[in-house]
Amino acid sequence: MIFQSKNIKSYNNEAQTKFITYFEDSQLDKGLALDKGLPLDKEIHSKIKFMLDSEDFDCKNGQLQIINLFRNESPRNVILVGVGKKEDFTLDRLRKNIAKAVKEAAKSKSKSIDINIENLVSLMNLDEIVRTISEAAVMADYKFDQYKSDKKASTLEEFNILYAQEDHLENISKGINEGVILGQANILTRTLVNEPANILGPIELAEAAKKAGVESGFQVEIFDEVAIKKLNMLAFLEVAKASVKPPRLIVMRYQGNPGSKEEIVGLVGKGLTYDSGGLSIKPTTGMVTMKSDMGGAAAVIGAMTAITKLKAKVNVIGVVASCENMIGGNSYRPGDIIGSMGGKTIEVINTDAEGRLTLVDAVNYIIEKEHATKVVDIATLTGAVISALGTTATGVVANNDFFFTRLEQASKICDEKVWRLPAFDEYKELIKSDVADLKNSGGRNAGSITAGLFIGEFVKDKPWLHLDIAGTSWAEKNSDYESKGGTGAGARLLYHLIKQLEK
Ligand code: BES
Ligand code: MN
Ligand code: ZN
To answer: What's the gap in Å between 411 CA and the centre of ligand 1?
Structure first.
């Protein structure tokens, strides 16, 4: 889909589908939509008027009214997009409702959409409005149908943003650019999550990172198993060793603020391309979606593309320790005592608590070798976070209030919800081992907190955020801008977090 801005004065209804954002509480906008900005022809004008005047007309927040004109000339249909009351307007409402309307337009095989944004400009910054509309459109137009024999490409080719005032043009262009890049980052993350583990293993994930780096302009270095052994990433290697697919350490580097080299933000993503549970094997029902256990890695790769393309003024390093958690004569076992790159010894209680083992070595690497001064790790880490927060919010463990506040601000911009979990010292008792420095499972109680705190043992007092996306990275059904399967959670959130750190 190509996004364009067009001045309404020289525009003559080129798009097949016309969106009109509809506010329940605004007579003015009824008027504006019908008369002022939009040169609508008589047929549409009278149809909309008839509809608005009819007794059972309703177009509340979340509702669409579709007027199909059954004709060849554009527009062929008009979609009133209910966005509720003006006073309740939020970008997320806009995002969700535009997404619904885009799906509707795609369903009717429309090739092009337009929307006049002049009735929105008084409500929010124009660049944010346009960013949200274009981001929503890109996200809504996504389908993972790569492996379907009867796949059909989306018909949507063009999205026109219409404006009346010439001085709006600059903000519109900025908004389009950001929205498209963020939408694409989100769907890249989804696609990587949706690719099955027989197609996408650690080598292929590393290749995908490389490709993303070449396309967007960040540097990528890939370490094979020999290089990983040299780095002494002992915990990571234990998890990886039963798989016939060798592990890869993926390092992505972007220097957006070369003048301040001492500040480096490290993003660490969990990159299990498959998690069978290992010898502590999962039941089939728990295993079917475990191709998604690299959702954190995919989020970091997606975020890196946006950070680079949008030239964030921050130095960022992304690290993924990617492998498969499998079963074989060479598997690591419950009861084993293993080492780690950071030197701490770990008693393995459960081979299904593998993510934290790969993550602690990646965190140690990013601090020791890449000199990260702040660390964020993002991981599909625990089923317990789904019990606690469902699929609505990402669970967070943090050791720094300032850093967490930045994450909350980022979260509000993109509406990827986060919730901070308590991290009292008492919880740390649960992961102490009798025979090693730590154990990799603290049992059922407070499972997401103890998992986070296990990683926290390796952050060396750096400001740190741990994001558990086990619930938010996967959707059981299609909804507004989401599609069944990977949600792309984290890509937009991490981008906005990095932007918050510019200031
Ligand atoms: N990858 C899983 C967590 C997960 C579960 C992600 C469901 C998405 C959906 C993780 O490696 C895992 O198996 N965690 C265990 C930890 C336990 C053994 C301490 C869990 O949550 O059961
Ligand atoms: Mn596991
Ligand atoms: Zn896992």
So the answer is: 24
